[in-house]
User: Fold these one by one.
Assistant:
Number 1:
Amino acid sequence: MRRLKWLFLLLVLALGLSCGAAAADVTAARFRDWEEISHQPEVAMLVDLGLVSGYGDGAFRPLNCVTRAEVSKIVTGLLTEARPDAAAPGRFRDTAGCWAEDYIQFCADRGVISGDAEGNFRPGDNITARELAKVLLAALGCRTDGYTGAQWSESVDADAEQLGLYKGYSKDRSLFITREDACLLINNALQCSVITGYGADGAPQYALDDMMSPKSLLEYRFQVIPATGVVEANAVADLRKAGAALEGNLIHIGGYTRDFVVSEQTAADASLLGRRVTLYARFYPTFNQVFGMPSVRAEEASLTLAGPQELQAILDYGAMTLSADVLYFEDLMPATAASLDAMVSGDTVTVVDHEGDGSVDMVFITKAPAAEAPSAEESD
């Protein structure tokens, strides 16, 4: 029956109605080639954490390959906040004078990276996706003794797949990895638990939070944790109070007492209002700082319809129902169900189902712009 309901919704959409797109931070200002980046949330996260940056001309160049030297700097940032001390000469035969020499030695001292049999590091060589995964596994505290020899690639792939490092990455792992794809794998690593050692039985020991749950690398290193809730207010409007809005680059999500500091683009994004989002934040006594871009929960469903008749048709068929505590808004101000009856041609209605269970939680009515009255000259 549920399959039939969604088939009906697809038929409705095919007849000309539109499904609400997942809200996203409009951050074209980050880089001049922002629209060319496939993994925008992952890039935004690493930029905000200070792990990656763009070029002097304002571009990110997402398809450029990543070098071994660049990876050493990024991984150093994953492991420590402090800049490493100056490298002692002679660690590798080919790193003297390299801009990343300090980072390379820092990572080498911790067993995260290594050179070749001739004692070279080859800092300018590009790195493959599998090689990056190997470095990230080591940074997470995984045992690396199985990552050598003829079967090293199989061992790396097995562990990386188990931890989810390759999530969202479907390309050949033996190919050189691009900047945007490297951000994807690194962001995946940030979601993984940090191993601090191994017990006598060989079992991994994890860094634990106050609830005795394993800490992700994102929390362990950057004190950033996920927060989920419905966006109730930003610089555009405050759904809790008619005619109000937040001042500055802030949003408020339900269930939290303090506002979240976000980018100017996120604060001005009207499409986030009423959406259930997950964001990553560092918590302070008076505010919460968001890193990266808020993302709409995958299970949420949003549908924009041309008017109350289309909404009623979906409700009559049973494809959706109105929850008992559904909230109504008209032009982003609190309203009632009576606003549906007052809709006229050109008005639209958007329904939001936060849990994706077919029960509508919020209804947003957008009134069509009022036609301007003709001037006296035009009427003559």
Number 2:
Amino acid sequence: MQKILIVEDDHELNQGISYALKKEGYAVRSAYSMKETQDIFYTINPDLVLLDVNLPDGDGFSLCKWIKHRAAVLFLTARDLEEDVLQGYELGAEDYVTKPFSMKILSKRIAVILQRSEKPNHRIFDDGFLFIDFDQAKASVNGSEQSFTPTEFRLLYELTSHTNQLLTYDILLERLWDSGNQFVDKHALAVNVNRLRKKIEDEAHKYIFNVYGMGYQWLD
């Protein structure tokens, strides 16, 4: 079942779109702000994000920069100026729909995007000791179920997606937290890495390595 995340702060409109899309067989979740979107993103790993530009804690253009490498984006917004539409496409959105809109046409555009960007298989990490199903937000360590915070899931996703590659502090800070309106320092990153190590590593299984002064690396 394909998953759609609706990021729209108008609760009535958000729920109306959600109801229509659920009737069409999609798995749908709703978010009403940038922060809520980032907090729940890796618990659902959506295939498509319907994204408003005007959000209570920032603008959707900034959020699109964070989402675009992780899911397809369709802007759904009242911002109908030509420069806004062009900016949406330049940021990597698959489509840009202005309000008011036809639900039938929106549904068709969604179907086209999902067909075009359909994932061949979902994302799993499994080495016999550590198992992570990113689509289902489930994980186990040595057969025992383990829970992670949304930030820890994001960190795991970034590291395991770039095995044996150095991810600098700045890259990780941008991908994990930067949404254009907040700043998090290296200390917060180090705290999350250390907490994650305690959950997934033992003497025989070491995954995350610190390249001093530069960043972190996930080694297979």
Number 3:
Amino acid sequence: MNHQKVMNIPVCILIFCMLLCSLPMYMQNVYGEENGVVINPVDYGADPTGESDSAEAI
């Protein structure tokens, strides 16, 4: 192999790893909270301190 091809292999591996590492962030943006409904049980009477029973609110 010539020198240029040998140098391209680590660069390709590095780019592949960078793309692979960014995949979870992309998936979080696609399937994250902005596409779903977020319900706060405190709005329905749950006790955020945990001192009283919040089962009915949940």
Number 4:
Amino acid sequence: MSIRRTLPLVGVLTAAFVALPRTGDVVFATENSAFTDSDGDFLPDGVEWVALTNANQANTDGDAVDDFIEFVQAGRPRQANPALPIDHELRIAVVGPRTGAVDQMTWLHVFLLKAEHSAAVTSLDAWIDLPGLPGTRLHFDPLTVPGVDFGVRLKGNGAVWLRCSVPLIGAPLLQAVAPCSFGVDAVVGGRALTSGAKLIEAQGVLATLTPFDGNSFAVQSLSPPSATAGATFSSNRICVLDMQEVGAGPAGTLYAVTDAACEDCNEVECVLLNCQQSIGWVITVPGGVGSLGANN
């Protein structure tokens, strides 16, 4: 059982390393903005990068379900599938700055899908697990962090899409903290929801584990390429890990990487030069891999 400690976000990250000064609450939509949404699907381009969806297509797999819905439902936005029943859902993503950007801020994006407009969000709690404090979960209120940004989209079927984007710290400092895990717990319309994100350092790159297919997870860099880097990609293959549960520790469930391979994945590029080098890694995931994207 984890020990609960409640601290302001800046205090949490100061305790871990040092907090960066804020540059202000106004964020302008540039190519490096955390909120740029090229295809208008309510998922910022950076989120689509870590989610392995196409930032230029609102429906990556061409089925009848928008990327936002499949992402928040932890579905398969890269493969055509029948629509799932709509319920209250939660999904988070941690995103870094574009490669080479001057602003190095990382962001925690929280997405809520309310199936009914009248459903109340009665609880929203964010937390971080740090490797140096196993068994201690540091909580913060995402709604009160300086610079937090909100988005709302009303849907014709009575549903409401909500986005809460929380500035964290600069990517170099977050990489120094990694491996670490972020999570958000919420209660929407009486339904308890949770979603997590696992951050690791892979060959010098800050990366996250993204559900890929079945029990496999892709290693994807937190930082999308620069706006002009896409033309330099030599392939569209991503490193996918098979992980097997091998035990538990104070910080969470332990998983060993049993196999790894490069797989086709839209226009994204593999963060690992050699996927096979990851075989034998042992990765700790608070709450187990079911928390990575899923609503528990």
